[in-house]
Amino acid sequence: MLVDDHGRTATDLRVSLTDRCNLRCSYCMPPEGLDWLAKPELLTDEEIVRLVRVGVERLGITEVRFTGGEPLLRRGLPGIVAAAAALEPRPEISVTSNGIGLRRLAAPLAEAGLDRVNISLDTLDPGTFKTLTHRDRHADVLAGLAAAHDAGLRPVKVNAVLMRGVNEHEAVPLLRFCLDHGYRLRFIEQMPLDAQHGWTRTGMITAEEILGRLAEAFTLTPAPGAERGSAPAETFVLDGGPARVGVIGSVTRPFCGACDRVRLTADGQIRNCLFATEESDLRAALRGGATDDDLAARWRAAVRTKRAGHGIDDPGFLQPVRPMSAIGG
Q1: Which of 31, 157, 270, 282 is least crowded, fewest Cβ atoms below 10 Å from its Cβ?
Q2: Hey, is 10 helix, strand or coil?
Q3: DSSP run (H or E) holding 157
Q4: Parallel, antiparallel, or unpaired for β 244-248 and 261-264?
Q5: Would you tell me how many other CB atoms lie within 10 Å of the CB of residue 172?
Q6: Is the pLDDT of residue 146 over 80?
């Protein structure tokens, strides 16, 4: 098992398949994009599958989520998903995506064994979407959501980040949209993971503010009998149920004490936290002839040193050098 020195066990593996993305969301990267990883630096499909297999078969991983950048840009994604679905014991398999391309890929991914998707949608207004992402692809995201739902990738989860002076007024409309379409919405506090390092605490819409805006239109009560545990989202029942909404307060209401996640970057580095400043290289060992036992031992050693918390409130906090697009969500 992947146990750290604070007694937490990692069972949820987030695998970044690429640092590339076809959007330029302002809270992630600059309009001109970033310097992408060179192809030789990226893990091959076979290397990704092998590391996922080691994680599942030898280290107790029960959930695998493929992320990016934008994972749908990885041509081998259906094959990677199929290989993960063939493992014993079979892990739960999901993808975090911007939704562009899902109209074409939702059905093939479902056939390959994908269980569900998380799709980013920060606004219902095409103009605001273009301002935020520097791309005119709003209709493609909506089509991707519908295709995922139709392909049986349920529940379709929608992730929304509210930004002050940009889309904060859309909290209630976004929730009504998701309720009308059978999607499950989760609001996420904006985190200090942008490539520009422009994040400020005062500019962030907090979980408390989000709940306040939702309370103007809905009666919110904590979901009964459901402890948050390692889940990032706090879940609230709307108007007595059964509809629900989630709020992820990663900054102001952290869940570090029960975190069960570990991350594998597209270039083969193990990261214990989105905000980690250290990484452990599995790629070099993988390409140097390491056995599965060797890889498992290195992975265990890497997770053992996981810090107690993300440290955003510490006076000496430093934003990671890698932005979100190069880490994986």
Answers
A1: 31
A2: strand
A3: strand 157-160
A4: unpaired
A5: 14
A6: yes
Q: pLDDT averaged over the chain?
A: 93
For the record, the structure tokens of 173 come out as: 């409309």
Q: How far apart are CA 278 and CA 318, in angstroms?
A: 12
pLDDT band at 28 (very low <50, low <70, confident <90, very high): confident
CA dihedral sign of residues 17, 21, 27, 33: positive
Distance set, CA 152 to CA 62, 114, 175, 218 (Å): 21, 10, 21, 28
DSSP lists the bridge partners of residue 220 as 238
Residue with tokens 């190069």: 326
Neighbours of 291 (CB within 10 A): 10
Q: What is the residue extent of each domain of the chain?
A: 2-327
Q: How far apart are CA 237 and CA 221, in angstroms?
A: 5
Q: Which amino acid is at 191?
A: M
Inter-residue long-range contacts of 39-46, CB under 8 Å, 24+ positions, other chains counted: 41/267, 42/18, 42/266, 42/267, 43/266, 43/267, 43/268, 43/283, 43/286, 45/76, 45/79, 45/80
Q: Does domain 2-327 have CATH number 3.40.50.300?
A: no
pTM above 0.85, yes or no: yes
Q: What is the structure's pLDDT at 329?
A: 65
What's the CA gap between 302 and 163, in Å, rounded?
Answer: 35
Nearest to 124 by CA among 167, 159, 161, 163: 167
Tell me: cis bond preceding 323? Omega within 30 of 0 counts: no
Residue 322: per-residue pLDDT: 79
How buried is 13 (Cβ within 10 angstroms: 0-12 exposed, 13-18 middle, 19+ buried)? buried
- Alpha carbons 299 and 23: distance in angstroms, whole number: 32
- Which of 41, 31, 93 lies closest to 62 in space, CA to CA? 93
